Amino acid sequence: MGSLTQAFVDDLTYPIARRDNSVADNYHGVLVPDPYRWLEDPDSDETKEFVEKQVQLTDSILKKCDVREKLGDKLTKLYDFPKYEVPFIAGDKYFYFYNSGLQPQKVLFVQDTPDGKAEILLDPNTFSDDGTVALSVCTISEDAKYLAYGISSSGSDWVTIKVMRIEDKDALPDTVSWVKFSDVSWTLDSKGFFYSRYPAPIGDPRQVQGEHLHKTFK
What we know:
The protein has 218 residues and is of the alpha+beta class. 17% of the residues lie in helices and 36% in strands. It starts with a helix and ends with a strand.
């Protein structure tokens, strides 16, 4: 990694983040500056430009590492092996997550008996062509009739919860948006599930999270 170390002594120009001193919050009479709040908007042209400059700087350093490709190949080979997670039971079915080796996301399988034939129940790798949609939460009802799972896009903390009927893998119309940092817990009768979500933002997006019960459609 000697060449990478040497790269750090080269003349590097780090992108400058604009400081907006006009932004501040008033907490009980105390003004707390937040000069870089504009960076919290990932869709603004200014944020995109700043991120792109960071990427360019990073790439300019990493490309000087003469062992980077060899190291990447070695790590890829070491990580390329089947990975099983601990199976669990819900209702009369068995479930487990499995990764064949280098899949971006683990796949959820289901089978009727410990020695039965396993079938793919949910493959997060099919959520998007570019791999930017990820599985964030996954909960099966007590009777193994329903699967509630959350998806997020581009690394966002915001999650959308969807529901699948396990028997025929049919997607139900149930959808819950504006969920963040929440688990999903089914009721014992499998008629609904509990979750936490924020109200859809109208003004200030920093709103209080609330607990909710969602009843599934039959």
